[in-house]
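Action item from last meeting closed. Structure (364 res):
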């Protein structure tokens, strides 16, 4: 065996699995083509970059405490004007952390606990009663790694999910209903703006066709994520739907990164010795900013199951650790998909402030 666990994907959830498994005594190999493609630079990705208090706690439990800007709570803002509504996190602050900073912190921790990392893509695998043979492409050639388990932490468009026969469709992609239709799949774009954060809240701006959320990530920088139904056009076209926010933001900084369709469903998380985790295991939406935290909770459940040598235990635990996220985020996305509901969301949150505060404090 080259490793006990071969992990496909060095995103936050793949690295969380790696750290937890290595500290439980497993030998771990993580493969990700972007470890090589970026020439050693930290991996970036479209992300709102907000860590809610529960998620921050889960990362700290891994020995990872990345620097960033404290986040006091969540503020909903109507893009067309009107008073905003905000709620503080009762459990203490969350944190806005640049994606690259988070990757660096997780990768450093993984190296510290003895995880091997390889710049290669997982292209397929075979399994038998004793283990998995994982095909890799990278570093100028093809190779095979042998392990006891393969963990697919390879994101929304997971190739491990496909190879394991666990894919369940997903977003509808091109074509389909007219722009703005609630049945169109959702996508996200992310960029930064050079400006001093004007608030220590994550602001979610609600417009007719999408949401913009703004996260303070450094003293002179905010992250802006645009979420919309249907394939997004340019960054400028997306931001034009939020004129008051666009006016407030300073110069844009860095590349635009995109992701989607966001909604991904899977038949199961476990196929013999292959297990899916994080976005690869199924994803609802970025609207509530919980992907990393819920992913780390899945990582904990996965490693606990493998310590018992019982992957089916992870299948059951996955449903439990994602239940609240699937229900709450799914309900919010479904409701906000109705065009007549969207203009009512911020006023309703204002009128039902205790309920809004309760919901903010249910988020992970
Ligand atoms: C617009 C947007 C805003 C968001 N905002 C937030 C937020 O504020 N807070 C939050 O917690 N979450 C947020 N999320 C969700 C969060 O980004 C994801 O849930 C999180 O990144 C999932 O981590 P992961 O490790 O499962 O997958 P990823 O981060 O996608 O990592 C997957 C890795 O797998 C690698 N990979 C792909 N194919 C292969 C292969 N064949 N072999 C090996 N490796 C492969 C990729 O290179 C990548 O590095 C947001 C998402 C979007 C799209």
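Sequence:
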């Amino acid at each position: 065996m080259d490793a006990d666990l071969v992990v496909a994907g060095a995103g936050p959830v793949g690295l969380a699995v790696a750290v937890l498994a290595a500290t439980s005594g497993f030998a771990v190999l993580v493969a990700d083509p972007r470890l090589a493609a970026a020439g050693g630079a930290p991996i970036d990705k479209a992300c709102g970059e907000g860590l809610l208090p529960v998620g921050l706690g889960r990362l700290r439990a891994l020995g990872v405490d990345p620097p960033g800007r404290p986040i006091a709570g969540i503020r909903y803002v109507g893009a067309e004007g009107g008073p905003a509504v905000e709620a503080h996190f009762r459990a203490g602050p969350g944190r806005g952390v640049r994606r690259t900073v988070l990757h660096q912190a997780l990768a450093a921790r993984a190296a510290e606990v003895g995880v091997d990392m390889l710049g290669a893509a997982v292209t397929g695998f075979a399994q038998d009663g004793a283990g998995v043979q994982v095909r890799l492409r990278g570093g100028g050639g093809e190779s095979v790694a042998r392990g006891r388990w393969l963990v697919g932490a390879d994101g929304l468009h997971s190739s491990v999910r496909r190879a394991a026969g666990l894919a369940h469709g997903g977003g509808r992609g091109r074509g389909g209903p007219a722009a703005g239709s609630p049945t169109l799949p959702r996508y996200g774009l992310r960029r930064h703006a050079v400006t001093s954060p004007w608030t220590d809240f994550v602001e979610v701006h609600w417009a007719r066709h999408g949401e913009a959320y703004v996260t303070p990530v450094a003293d002179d920088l905010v992250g802006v994520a645009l979420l919309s139904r249907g394939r997004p056009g340019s960054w400028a076209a997306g931001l034009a739907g939020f004129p008051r926010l666009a006016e407030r933001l300073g110069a844009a900084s860095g590349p635009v990164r995109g992701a989607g369709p966001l909604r991904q469903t899977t038949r199961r998380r476990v196929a013999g010795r292959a297990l899916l985790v994080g976005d690869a295991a199924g994803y609802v939406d970025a609207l509530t900013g919980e992907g990393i935290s819920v992913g780390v909770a899945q990582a904990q459940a996965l490693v606990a199951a493998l310590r018992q040598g019982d992957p089916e235990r992870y299948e059951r635990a996955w449903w439990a650790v994602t239940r609240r996220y699937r229900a709450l985020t799914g309900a919010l996305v479904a409701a906000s998909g109705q065009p007549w509901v969207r203009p009512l969301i911020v006023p309703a949150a204002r009128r039902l402030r205790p309920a809004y505060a309760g919901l903010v404090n249910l988020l992970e």
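Note appended to the action item: Residues 8-14, 31-34, 43, 45-50, 55, 121-122, 153-155, 159, 188, 190, 225, 259, 278-280, 286, 289-293, 295 surround flavin-adenine dinucleotide (CB under 6 Å).
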